[in-house]
Amino acid sequence: MLDKVIVGSEEWCSFPDLGIPTIKARVDSGAKTSALHATNITTFEKDGENWVRFDINPIQNNLKAVIHCEALLVDKRVVKSSSGYREQRYVIKTKLEIGGSFWGIEVTLTNRDSMGFRMLLGREAMSGRILVDPEQKYLLGQPTNEKIKEYYYNELPVTKGLRIGLLASNPELYSNKRIMEAGEMRGHEMHFLNLKYCYMKLDADTPEIHYRGGRILNDFDAVIPRIRPSMTYYGCALTRQFEALKVFALNNSAAISQSRDKLFSLQLLLNNGVDIPTTGFANSPLDTNDLIKMVGGSPLIVKLLEGTQGKGVVLAETKKAAESVINAFKSLNANILVQEFIKEANGKDLRLFVVDGKVVAAMQREALPGEFRANIHLGGTASVVRVTPEEKRIAIKAAKAMNLKVAGVDIIRSSKGPLLLEVNSSPGLEGIEGATHKDIAGEMIKAIEKNFKWK
């Protein structure tokens, strides 16, 4: 018992292996797990093992002092916070120093901007080592303001690049990790901004965007919106707010909104001279027979307007099947498109990746045997393909018509020539980078640099 360190409910400690000289911790024996504030969390491989890289602002309410940390990843687990919120967190093991004693502890990484302390010391880390006097604070002493200034303010890192935010929902998604990595490799300050943690202040004099914990996000040079379909409305509203603050959006909110409306986007493309498969749209079940006839009869494709990544797309091989599918969708009050089936494509289509008016990569997608639609998310395969000048022209024209700086343009080869299927404003990078071995994430960062004439 005499060997144990006696601490109060709040103490200062350090993590020498992470390069954190001092940080204030909440000592909480009611919490099982220890937690450390972390942002911009990404995983990587080092010497055949999984590691995690993250940033920490060790002083509460101060974003200028930043420490870049790396640690061996030991686990990934679901942790229940004091508010009852369940969150999946990365777990690292690192050396803790408190009161002159050192030992290894497990720590989970999470954004603690909304909490009072950057560090929470839980009972697993204290077991056998610490006695807590909850009525006391700082029994082990406190660093002076001069010492904190010496640690964190004398040699603040100088950022020469742009400050870029990635607006998305999942930091673990390949595409998001690659964009963060590409930006950092080109010398920029990258921040992953989870859409659900952002909220806005609408005001004529001082409009603002806040992040979890009250952090204000008005000082970004650019944002890269990668908005999942379920977050389209809120994500576009958030992008508009950044635009109102004169922050450059790689894809602007209006372009993203119209790209998500399949019917409007097809009408817009046709008005700009881009050919598409013959397509019908109707609202009354009484029109079903003529609707089928209008697109050339069966077989035909039936699509939900809100569908993505191959979901909500059905091949109706006979007229009877087409009537059943169309009427079933309409009975659910779902908006649908009916489109001619391009049999000669043989389950293949093209994805052309357009960045800033240029086709930077292209691949051919091929459906699994028995499937009619090429889709990597559903098990299809991707391969390098040589596209024709006409196919490149269509892709560039489509992206321009939609006013998208970054677009995944899907084209199908038919007996009538290349036809455009759809334009995606948040195209995935994994399939096309894997197939072509091109640095598409880097091309996206270059497009931002070009806007700022940054070298």
Walk me through what this model shows.
The chain is α+β, with helices and mostly antiparallel strands. 24% of the residues lie in helices and 36% in strands. The chain folds into four domains: 5-152, Cathepsin D, subunit A, domain 1, CATH 2.40.70.10; 163-259, Rossmann fold (3-Layer(aba) Sandwich), CATH 3.40.50.20; 278-341, 2-Layer Sandwich (Dna Ligase, domain 1), CATH 3.30.1490.20; 344-452, D-amino Acid Aminotransferase, Chain A, domain 1 (2-Layer Sandwich). The protein has a nine-stranded mixed beta sheet. α3 packs across α11 and α4 (232-244) packs antiparallel against α5. The chain is elongated. It comes from Flavobacterium limnosediminis JC2902. It holds the Pfam family Rimk_N. One of its GO terms (molecular function) is metal ion binding.
Tell me briefly what this model is.
This is Probable alpha-L-glutamate ligase. The chain has 455 residues and is of the alpha+beta class. The chain contains eleven helices and 27 strands.
Question: What is the strand and helix layout of this fold?
Answer:
Blueprint (H helix, E strand, L loop, with lengths): L4 E3 L2 E6 L4 E8 L6 E4 L1 E8 L2 E8 L10 E14 L5 E13 L2 E10 L8 E3 L1 H4 L3 E3 L12 H8 L10 E6 L5 H12 L3 E6 L3 E4 L6 E4 L3 E2 L5 E4 L6 H13 L3 E2 L3 H8 L1 H10 L7 E3 L6 H7 L5 E5 L8 E4 L2 H13 L4 E5 L7 E8 L2 E9 L14 E4 L4 H13 L4 E9 L2 E8 L5 H7 L3 H13 L3
Parallel strand pairs: 1-11, 3-10, 4-9, 12-13, 12-17, 17-18
Antiparallel strand pairs: 2-3, 4-10, 5-6, 6-7, 7-8, 8-9, 14-15, 15-16, 19-22, 20-21, 20-22, 23-24, 23-26, 24-25, 26-27
Helix pairs in contact: 3-11, 4-5
Organism: Flavobacterium limnosediminis JC2902
InterPro entries: Asp_endopeptidase, ATP-grasp, ATP-grasp_RimK-type, ATP_grasp_subdomain_1, Peptidase_aspartic_dom_sf, Rimk_N, Rp_bS6_RimK/Lys_biosynth_LsyX
GO cellular component, one term: cytoplasm
